[in-house]
Write a structure and sequence with these properties.
Layout: H1 3-12, E1 19-23, H2 28-32, E2 35-41, E3 59-65, E4 68-74, H3 79-82, H4 89-97, E5 102-111, E6 121-129, H5 154-167, E7 172-178, H6 187-196, E8 200-202, H7 206-214, E9 218-228, H8 239-262
Parallel strand pairs: 1-4, 1-5, 5-9, 6-7, 7-8
Antiparallel strand pairs: 2-3, 3-4, 5-8, 6-9
Helix pairs in contact: 5-8
Length: 265
C-alpha cells in the first residue's frame, strides 16, 4: 500500500468507502449531501496532484451517503495541464487501496445532439479516445493490455438509469469523445466527431476509465451538458460558459447519483 493510501486510511478511521466519485464542475450539491464529511485538501495529501483549472476545488471528501460509505475527489487533473495522461493514476490507485470497488466519473461536456441541450445529463455508454495518448504507455507487463469491451459496467449503468427513472429526471445515453484540449474543438472537428459516432465531447474522463479498469475497478460515468458543440449555434465557446451552465445539469446528476448510491440493497 502506498504512503498516500496509508495517510488517507488514518484520516478515514473506521470508514471504508465502497464507492469513489470523481466530481467535475457543478457537482457541489453532492459533496454537501455527505454526512459528517472528512475533508482533506489535495495540497495536504502526499503525492496528490493539484488542478490549475478554476471551478475544480481540489479536495478529498469522505463520509456516508445514506448508509453507504463513499470517497469523493472534488476536482481532477486534466491531460492538457501538464501533457500527462497519467496524472490521475495515484488518486485512482489510492481509491482502490482504501477499499473502493466502484468508480463513478463525472464531467462537463459539449453536446453534438439537438435533443440533448445544455442542462441535460448523459450517461456515458462508451467512449472514443481521440487524443491518441494512453495513461498506460510505459507500463510494463501484460497487465497493461486492458480490455475495454466492457469498460462501463452494465450493472452500474442499469442502476443509474433506474435512479433517474425514479426521480423523473431524463437521462440520455451516448458516446463521449475525448479531445486533449485546452482549446475547444473546431466546427470541422465536431462534424468529424459526429460521423465517428460521438454524442458529446470533452477533455477528461477517458484516461481515468482506462486507469480504473487497469486497477480492477467497476466504472460508471456521466456528463453534464454545458453547451452545444462548436458550429452548432454559431456562438464562440468559453470556459466561463462551462462554469455558468454546469450547475444546471449538475444538480440533476447529483440527485441521480445520490439516489443510485443510497438505494443500494
Amino acid at each position: 500500500m502506498t504512503a498516500t493510501a496509508n495517510f488517507l486510511k488514518e484520516k478515514l478511521g473506521t470508514i471504508s468507502p465502497r464507492y469513489g466519485i470523481v466530481l467535475g464542475s457543478g457537482l457541489g450539491a453532492l459533496v454537501e449531501a455527505i454526512e459528517k464529511p472528512i475533508r482533506v485538501p489535495y495540497s495536504q495529501i502526499p503525492g496528490f496532484p493539484s488542478s490549475s483549472v478554476s471551478g475544480h476545488a481540489g479536495e478529498f471528501v469522505a463520509g456516508r451517503l445514506g448508509d453507504v460509505p463513499v470517497a469523493m475527489l472534488s476536482g481532477r487533473v486534466h491531460y492538457y495541464e501538464r501533457g500527462d495522461s497519467n496524472g490521475m493514476r495515484l488518486p485512482i490507485e489510492t481509491l482502490k487501496q482504501i477499499g473502493v470497488e466502484s468508480l463513478i466519473l463525472t464531467n462537463s461536456a459539449g453536446s453534438l445532439r439537438e435533443d440533448m441541450p445544455p442542462g441535460s445529463v448523459m450517461r456515458i455508454a462508451d467512449h472514443i479516445a481521440f487524443s491518441g495518448v494512453n495513461p498506460l504507455i510505459g507500463e510494463e507487463g501484460d497487465g497493461r493490455f486492458v480490455g475495454m469491451t466492457n469498460a462501463y459496467d452494465a450493472a452500474l449503468a442499469e442502476r443509474m438509469e433506474e435512479a433517474a427513472d425514479r426521480l423523473g429526471i431524463p437521462l440520455a445515453r451516448g458516446v463521449y469523445m475525448w479531445f486533449s484540449g485546452p482549446s475547444f474543438e473546431t466546427p470541422a472537428e465536431i462534424r468529424m466527431a459526429r460521423i465517428l459516432g460521438a454524442d458529446a465531447v470533452g477533455m477528461s474522463t477517458v484516461p481515468e476509465v482506462i486507469l480504473a479498469r487497469f486497477f480492477g475497478l467497476r466504472v460508471a460515468a456521466a456528463s453534464v451538458i454545458t453547451n452545444f458543440a462548436a458550429g452548432m449555434t454559431g456562438a464562440e465557446l468559453s470556459h466561463e460558459e462551462t462554469k455558468e451552465m454546469a450547475p444546471l445539469g449538475g444538480e440533476r446528476l447529483a440527485s441521480i447519483l445520490k439516489q443510485m448510491i443510497t438505494s443500494e440493497s
